[in-house]
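Hey Z.,

So I finally got round to the zinc ion thing we talked about over coffee. Here's the setup:
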Amino acid sequence: MARRYYMDFFEKLGETISTKSKDVAKKAKEVAEVVSLNAKISTQEDIIKKTYAQIGQKYYEKYKEDSFNEFGAEFDSINHAMEEIKRLQDEIQTIKNTKICPKCQEEVPTDSAFCSKCGAQFEAESQESEKAPQEDRNNDKVSEEEQPEVNDDVII
Ligand SMILES: [Zn+2]
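And the result:
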């Protein structure tokens, strides 16, 4: 009797274990399938997000000059961020003592006369800054000469 009892017991135990391990395997497979499907959903969501951004960028490029656009506030936000990026990039250039080639965007030493990548010739900045103020001064002189008729110091 006792022997029979143990046999039944172990048979039942064996059945329980195999059922349990089948359940575990089934669960693991389900989890793996769900993980895989969620990854595929993420991929599609990324495509949507990227495409939304592309539409937004195209729209911005098309209507950024339109000052009465319904997305004016968003345009301002983008413009402000772009200006900030430019300012921060300039700061980096100053720290590294480099400048950006206006033709190919290569970073080159500030004092270089040519771009090392595309060969573009840079206008000497010192000449530019000397020329411009002189022209301004001449313009100021002309306007000053035209003005003397009006003299606020003389009170009649
Ligand atoms: Zn260049």
